[in-house]
Each structure stands twice: as C-alpha cells, then as structure tokens.
Automatic annotation (TrEMBL):
Active site: E223, C258
Family as reported in the entry's similarity comment: Belongs to the aldehyde dehydrogenase family.
Catalytic reaction(s) noted: an aldehyde + NAD(+) + H2O = a carboxylate + NADH + 2 H(+)
GO CC terms, sorted: cytoplasm
Molecular-function GO terms, alphabetical: aldehyde dehydrogenase (NAD+) activity
Domain of life, per lineage: Eukaryota
The protein's name: Aldehyde dehydrogenase
Gene for this chain: LOC120256852
Keyword Endoplasmic reticulum set for record: no
Ranges where the Aldehyde dehydrogenase domain occurs: 25-446
UniProt xrefs under PANTHER family: ALDEHYDE DEHYDROGENASE, ALDEHYDE DEHYDROGENASE TYPE III, ISOFORM Q
UniProt source species: Dioscorea cayennensis subsp. rotundata
C-alpha cells in the first residue's frame, strides 16, 4: 500500500497510526526485511532515485531554503549518495557475525556477536538539511533490516512532499513508509510502540520524544544541537582560519546547521586582527550587499526570522553589532552579522542561535575558554584553531562535546568512519556509516557449546572440593586449581 493511498483515506490520526503499525509489524514479521537481498535492493533503489531525481531534489531544497545549488549538492545530495554507496559496499561485512574470544569458564566454546534488526523504527527528520537528515538514518535502518517510517519536517514542505511522492515509487512500501504532517501527526506516531526512534531537532521536542518513548521503553537516538564554540588562538594561519570559519558558519545553510559555529572565543589582544579579517573576507565572499548574494540560504520561515530578530534587537545586544545586521523580512534574508563582546547573560548567549549571527567574546588567556565552554551545556561540536600542539591536546582532553574538529569547521561530519552524535543536552546516541547500521541493530550475544567438556564441579552437591576447584578456576590461580584437583588444600 503506497503513501498516496494512505492520503486518500483521510487525516492521519491515532487510529491510522495504529493501522500503519500493524501493517509494518506484519511486513517485518514475514522476515522479508532481514534478507541481504531485500536490503541491497532497497539501497540500490535509493541510489538510483538520487541519480534520477537530482534536479527535483535540488528544486525542493531551493524552494524550502533558497539553498545555493553547490551547497545543496555538496552537503545533501553528494553526502547522501556516498552514504548509500558505503552501505552497499560494506553491508555483507556489517551483517557478518563478529567472532569474539571465549573465557576459561565456558571452555570449550565459541562466541560471536550477531547483528539483528530491531524491528519497526521511526525516523523524525529536521528542516535545515531535510534531504540528508531524512535519508541518512533511513539508509542505516534499511541496511540493518528494519521496517521504517520516515516523518519528514513540515517546515521543509517541498522536500517532505518529494519524499511522500517519490519514495513509494522506488522502495518496498509494505515496509518503508512516509508520513507527512505536523504536530498532530507526529503525536499520533509517538503514541505507538516502536522498536527505536531517531529524532533530529531541538532539545525541547527531544524531551517530548523521549517521554513518549519511555512509556514503551523504546530506545532513542536524539540528534539535538547546542551552542557550538570556536576557540581561536593567536598562533594560527589567520587567512585560512577565517575562510574556514566563514564557510562553516554562513556556507552551511546560512548558520542554520546544528554543528554551525555559535560563538567565537579569542583573546583580547588578538580580537582586533580576527575581527578585521572576518569583515574583509565576508565582504569578499558575499559582496557589499549580502542580502542580494545568491550564495546564502534564506531564513527558513517568518517564525525563525522573528526569533532571530528578537535576539538581535535585545537592548544588551543591538549596540554590539560590528558588522552586518541588515534584514529583509519579505525575502526572509538576514546578512552575516558579527557581534563583539556581548554580555554572557544576553539571550543570544543563552539560546542556540541557528542563524547568520556570530558573537565574539574575549578572554585574557586562550585557556580560559575551556572554563567558559564547560560551564555551559555540552555542545554538539567544538572547534579549535591553533598551531600549538599542547593547547590542542588540552582542548581534546578537557572539553566535552559530541564531536570535535581542530583547525576547521563542520568537516568531521563528512567522515563516515566517525560517529556523529551529541552528549548530554546535545543528544543521545550516534549514527553515520557503520554507526548507522549499529544504531538500528541489536547486538545479540551468542555462545556455542557442544555436549562435551563437562565440569562436575558445576553441579550439586556443592562439596568443599568443588568449591575450591571453582574458586581457583574463576580466580585464575593455577597452583590452587592443581592442588584442589589433587585434593590438597592450599595453606
């Protein structure tokens, strides 16, 4: 049954969600999704869809976010295609049971860890990268052999509509479904008992998802956000550092990215050089009137435009603008904006910015930045620019964050061999590459024994000799074991 048929049946409510769950449980229960052949067929179909529908995907991303074509291709289409390729290439190896050693207490035996699908999983996606944040976890869920429901974000309606319209034409819609909608549809879905839920978004909704999951003891992966800091030491290649900070902030959906730099910390003495370099490079990249630049995404909607305006217009903040600040409410455009030495108790330093505004705060010594970062909730990403290896080591060892990158911004996301996820307020669990497969798999412990190798000491009656044998065996005391077997107590 395709998604189109579901839409014709009326509003998606709790009753429809329960029906959907029954259908998916039946599909998973048939065992079809467990086979290597089914998984590969779905992944190949997804890969083909990306190639055949690339123009439609790009058009949807432009409609939702005015995302520049190159940015949309690099950050969404290309990375999703690569995730699909990697899963196809590695799936047999991922599915293969992992042999592990056995212990003396189970001798003779063999042991392995078997990856089995969890069952029926729910993926609730986000609007800022609506294509990759939907399909990347779907790829992992399919690779792991699950039945899947994708709930794309209603804030990116063109991409959500693309999924609802297109995925059923490529994938097995008896086991993989798309549900469009907003709060009421998401609520109806969350009332069901899932085998895992992956949610990407903010911590407020993350708490709602986790509370709903707790009612059914459903495990969750929460990909949230937070205020990701950038520490800039004076010992840097300033030209390179500034270009990388700018492309990691404004070149990532105009700051509307969960791993986007949220604020900069630098020393008072180095700040003037850094500020001037940021200003000149921003003008070089986006022109004298950045509101007309075709290389910047727009703010996603009027609600987020109003939210960002409220942050900028706070009395404590407005006078701190040192670059940018221009806005066009009709076009939903806000220029790249730099703030200098904003108060720590301002809203913009308390809330995740998720937009084209970048505060710069200063310290006397760069090491003081560690205490500032650690005094806040743990961020999804933390960045350091320095040539000082000792400072780099201290940063890695003393700052807690979901991920970390030295001398660049956001690129750790592009390495499928690194887990992507948060810690504390910035999230629970991780995915990407094999980590996606693992996120949607149960790691089942399996011990194999034959009928040989009996140990009489296991069985009653529990004599003193048996106790001595077992204690020596479990304690790894070979001399005591030999003495116990001979019936000689060790003094």
């Amino acid at each position: 049954m395709g998604v189109e048929m579901e839409e014709n049946r009326g509003a998606f409510d709790g009753h429809r969600a329960a029906e959907l769950m029954v259908e998916l449980r039946e599909a998973f229960g048939s065992g079809r999704t467990r086979s290597y052949e089914w998984r590969v067929a779905q992944l190949k179909a997804l890969f083909r869809m990306i190639d055949e529908k690339e123009a439609e995907i790009m058009a949807a991303l432009y409609s939702d976010l005015a995302k520049p074509e190159l940015e949309a291709f690099l950050h969404e289409v290309s990375l999703t295609r690569s995730a699909c390729q990697l899963a196809l290439k590695e799936l047999k190896r991922w599915m293969k049971p992992e042999k592990v050693s056995s212990s003396i207490t189970t001798f003779p035996s063999s042991s392995e860890i078997v990856s089995e699908p969890l069952g029926v999983v729910l993926i609730i996606s986000a609007w800022n990268y609506p294509f990759i944040l939907s399909l990347d976890p779907v790829i992992g869920a399919i690779a792991a052999g699950n039945a899947v429901v994708l709930k794309p974000s209603e804030v990116a309606p063109a991409t959500a509509s693309f999924f609802a319209r297109t995925l059923p034409a490529y994938l097995d819609s008896s086991a993989i479904r798309v549900v469009e909608g907003a709060v009421s549809e998401t609520t109806a879905l969350l009332e069901q008992k899932w085998d895992k839920i992956l949610y990407t978004g903010n911590s407020k909704v993350g708490r709602i998802v986790m509370a709903a999951a707790a009612k059914h003891l459903t495990p969750v992966v929460l990909e949230l956000g937070g205020k990701s800091p950038v520490v800039v030491d004076s010992n840097v290649n300033l030209e390179v550092a500034v270009k990388r900070i700018i492309v990691g902030k404004w070149g990532c959906n105009n700051g509307q990215a969960c791993i986007s730099p949220d604020y900069i910390i630098t020393t008072k003495s180095f700040a003037p050089k850094l500020v001037e370099a940021l200003k000149s490079t921003l003008e070089k990249f986006y022109g004298e009137d950045p509101l007309e630049s075709k290389d910047l995404s727009r703010i996603v909607n009027s609600n987020h435009f109003a939210r960002l305006t409220r942050l900028l217009d706070e009395d404590k903040v407005y006078g701190k603008i040192i670059y940018g600040g221009q806005r066009d409410e009709k076009k939903l455009k806000i220029a790249p904006t730099l703030l200098f030495d904003v108060p720590h108790d301002s809203l913009i330093m308390k809330e995740e910015i998720f937009g084209p505004i970048l505060p710069i705060i200063t310290v006397d010594k760069v090491e003081e930045s560690f205490d500032i970062i650690n005094s806040r909730t743990k961020p999804l990403a933390a960045y350091l620019f320095t040539k000082d290896k000792i400072l780099e080591e201290k940063f890695v060892n003393n700052v807690s964050s979901g991920g970390m990158l030295i001398n660049d911004v956001a690129l750790h996301l592009a390495n499928p061999n690194l887990p992507f996820g948060g810690v504390g307020e910035s999230g629970i669990g991780a995915y990407h590459g094999k980590f996606s497969f693992d996120a949607f798999s149960h790691k089942k412990a399996v011990l194999h024994r034959s009928f040989g190798g009996e140990a009489p000491a296991r069985y009653p009656p529990y004599t003193l000799k048996k106790q001595r044998i077992l204690k020596a065996l479990l304690g790894g005391d070979i001399i005591s074991l030999v003495l116990a077997l001979l019936g000689w107590p060790r003094s």
